[in-house]
Amino acid sequence: MSADLTARLLAEVTARREDLVALTQALIRIPTLNPPGKLYREICDLLDRRLLKSGFHTELIRAEGAVGDSDRHPRWNIVARREGSGPGQCVHFNSHIDVVEVGHGWTVDPFGGEVKDGRVYGRGACDMKGGLAASIVAAEAFIAVCPDYAGAIEISGTADEESGGFGGVAYLAEKGYFSPDRVQHVIIPEPLNKDRICLGHRGVWWAEIETLGEIAHGSMPFLGDCAVRHMGAVVAEMEKSLFPALAQKRTDMPVVPDGAKQSTLNINSIHGGEPEQDMEYTGLPSPCVPDRCRMVIDRRFLIEEDIGEVEQEVRDVLERVRAGRAGFDYTIKGIHSVEPTMTERDAPVVGAVAGAVETVFGRAAEYVVSPGTYDQKHIDRIGRLKNCIAYGPGILDLAHKPDEYVGIGDMVESAQVMALALHGLLKA
C-alpha cells in the first residue's frame, strides 16, 4: 500500500471520531441484557438503519428453535453484506450484541453511555459494543477511500455470545453464513487490547455432579444421609489432589493472563437441600436432611490435553471418595464442551491485521490466546473456517466489571487497523 493511501485511510477514520463515539453510545443505551435476552430486535433495527445507509444489503434473522429462543425473548441477529466492484474474497466482522448483568458497584449509569476522560462508559462498552462500532466505522471509512474494492465486506451483530452463542453465531454457522465458500476471513472485535491479535481460546468442559443421600428429620440426622456432607468430601478431595495436579499443567499456547497458562477448574455453584424460597417468604426452612446436592464445575483445558482425560480426572476424584466413604453415591453428566482452537500465525487474516497493527502503532503485534471461549468456536467447529481471529479495542480485564469503559482513542486506532486490514485482504 502506498504511503499516500495509508495516510488517507488513517485520516478518514480519524475524521469519523465523533460519529464513532455517538454510535457506541447509541449501542450501549439499548440494554441487551442476557439472560434473558432483552431488546435484541431493537439493537438489530438500529444496526439495520445504519448499514442500509452505507450501502449494505441486510438480513434480520431470528434463530427460531435455538437454545434460549422464545416468543418473549426472540434471538434476533443481523447480517449485512456489501459487494465490491468485482469478484474477490469476503471479510466478515462479527460482534455479539448481548451484554451480561449489571452487578453492583457502578458510579455511572450502566446504560447511559457517559463520556468522561476520553472514555465511553457503560455495560458492554468494552465487551463489545465499542468493537462493533469500530468495525462499522472502519468499513465505512474504507469504502469511502477505496470504493472500487474487489470482493465483499460483511458485518454481523449476533445474539447470546455471553451464554454460549447458540442463538447467534452457532445458528448462523449451521445455516451456512460462515461457510468457507461464502466468507474467507473473519475478525471478531473482542476486547483483547488494541495491539494484540487473539488466535483462539482454551477448551471448556462444564459438568454437573450430584451426590445422593437420604432425607430424614433434621433433629435426627443419624436416620438419614446428608448429601451436602458427601459433596463436602468431593470438594476436599479436589483440594487435595485435583487442584494441585491442574496447577502443574502448562501450555505453549500464548494464553493471557499468565494464570490461565495452566489448566483451571472453577466450582461454579453448589446447592443442596430444599429449594430457596421466594423473597416474600418470611418463615423458617423446614428441618430436613438434604438427600441431594448438586455442583456445577467449569473446567478450562489446554490444547495439549484430551477432553476424555479431562473428564476422567474428575471421575477419578469421585471414585476415590467412593472408595473411602461409606454410603457415598453420585451421578455426573456433561452439560457443555468446547475444544480448544488456535489459528495459525501464517493465516492470511493474521498477516493482514499484524501488518496493520505495525503500521498504526509502530511495533509488532502481540499474539495471544483467550482464557475463555468466544464465538470463534462455532466458526471453527460448525463453519469449518479456520481463518478467524479476535481483534478489537478495549481492555479484557474490564469485561463484566462495574464502571466498564472503552477508550475513545483505542477505538479510533483499532478502527484504523481494521480499515488497513480490509485493504490488505481485499486488494483495493
From TrEMBL:
Family matches, as InterPro entries: ArgE/DapE, Bact_exopeptidase_dim_dom, Peptidase_M20, Peptidase_M20_dimer, Peptidase_M20A
Gene Ontology terms for molecular function: hydrolase activity; metal ion binding
Co-factor requirement: Co(2+); Zn(2+)
UniProt keyword annotations, A-Z: Cobalt, Hydrolase, Metal-binding, Zinc
Occurrences of domain Peptidase M20 dimerisation (ranges): 200-320
This protein's record includes keyword Hydrolase: yes
Family membership: Belongs to the peptidase M20A family.
Descriptive protein name: Succinyl-diaminopimelate desuccinylase
Provenance organism: Roseovarius atlanticus
